[in-house]
Amino acid sequence: DSFLRLGGDSLDAMKLVAAARREGIQLTVKDIFDNPTMSEMAQVAKLIAAPTESFQKIPPFSIIQANATEVVDSVAAACQIDPGLVEDVYPCTPLQEGLMALSNMEHGAYI
């Protein structure tokens, strides 16, 4: 039977995509609607290849472009914590920088 004839809708299609992904199968919502029977879906579904290389571990404080000790001390002071509790520091994204700038102009905004 057809996915649509069985009452499948876009939310069900998203759930099916997620379930397929958990089983290592790549299927899109478009695939489901374009190929609504199981046999048609099986023809367009693809196996998700296992990653061939592992993620490289990034050492703490290696992303920032400043003296790590100074940054740790500054962050610890701003958060009122012991510097030994700071595990790593990441730079802000452009969106975060913009929100921080707006927060400085309008106290309490976005915080």
UniProtKB/TrEMBL annotation:
GO terms for molecular function: ligase activity; phosphopantetheine binding. Residues 1-49 form the Carrier domain. Keywords: Ligase, Phosphopantetheine, Phosphoprotein. PANTHER family: FATTY ACID SYNTHASE, NONRIBOSOMAL PEPTIDE SYNTHETASE. GO terms for biological process: amino acid activation for nonribosomal peptide biosynthetic process; secondary metabolite biosynthetic process. One of its GO terms (cellular component) is cytoplasm. It holds the Pfam family PP-binding. This is Carrier domain-containing protein. InterPro entries: ACP-like_sf (IPR036736), PP-bd_ACP (IPR009081), Ppantetheine_attach_site (IPR006162). It comes from the Eukaryota.
